[in-house]
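Tutorial, part two.
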Amino acid sequence: MSTSQNKPYYKVISLFIKSVILFFSFYYIYDKLNEAPVILDFSTLFTINNIFYILAIVLLMFLNWGLEAFKWKLLIAPLEKIDFSTSIKGVLSGVTISIFTPNRVGEFAGRVFFLNQADKIQATIMSLIGSLAQLLVTVIAGVFAFYMLEKKYYDFFQIEQFISLNKLVWIFVLTLVVASVLIYVIYKKQKSSGKLKKYINTFRLHSRKNLNTVINLSILRYIVFSIQYYLTLKIFGINGGTIIVFSLIALTFFVTSVIPTFALTEIAVRVGVAIYFFSTIYSSHAPIIAASVFLWIINLAIPALMGSAFVYKLKFFKE
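Running the prediction step on this input gives:
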C-alpha cells in the first residue's frame, strides 16, 4: 500500500494520539486542581497585600517559558530555522504532554513534532542538550547552596547522621568516572556506525559561543523561577534570612530534578522535598504544602492549558 493510500489511516492515528494526550493532560490537571481548594484558601490568597506578588509571579512565568522558547529556537537552528512563535508553541505543547509523564520526559515530544524538516532523533538530542544545560545549572546551584548552609551555618542539616561527607565525595567521583567511561565507549562505537556517528555529531553542531548562550539562558531561567519560589513563600508567610531561603530553594530544585518521579506522585514528591528542607526554618507544614501547589499551578498547570491549544498542530507522521 502506497504512502498516499496510508494517509487517511495516519490522520486517524494522529488524531487519536492527540486526543489521548489532551484527555490525560486535562484529567491530570483537573484532578490536581480539584484538590487545590483543600490546600489553598483562595479567599485569603487574593488579598491586597498579595496581589503584587501574585502578579509578579505570573509575569515571571511568561518570562520563564519565553526564555525557554528562545533557548529552543537557538538549539534547533542548525537543523531547522523556526521563528519565536513556532518555538513557543512547541515548548508549551511540550508542557501539555509532559504534565502527566514521568519526570516530564514528554516535554521533548511537543517540540520535536512541531518541526517540519529536522530529523526527529537529532531534534530530540538538541532538546536533551537544553535539558542537560538546565540540569547542570540546577546541580551546581544545589551543591553550592548545600556548601553555603553547612559552612556558614555550621552543620545546618546534620547530614552526617545519615551519610558522611567523604562518602558523598566518593559517590560524586564514581558518578563522574562512570559517565566518562560511557562517553568513551559511545565515541569508540561511532567509528563502526555511520548512523550513530551522525547522531553523535549532533552534539558538535553548535559553536562554543552558542553553547555558552544556552548555559546563560539556563542560568536566567533558574534565577527567574527561584525568584518565583521566593515570592510564593512570602505570600504564605514563610520568611527567613535571604541566603538561607534561596539556598533551601536551590536544594529543593536540586533534589526534585535528580530523583525519578511518576506523574501520579510528582506533586507529592515536590511537596515532600519542600517540607523536608523548609521545615528547618518553618514549623508548620501547611503553608509549605500550599506554596508548592500554588507554584505548580502557575508554572505548569497554566502553561499546560495554554499549550493544549497547539497539540492538534503536532506532526507525528510525514505528510
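The chain has a mean pLDDT of 81. In part three we will examine how such features are distributed along the chain.
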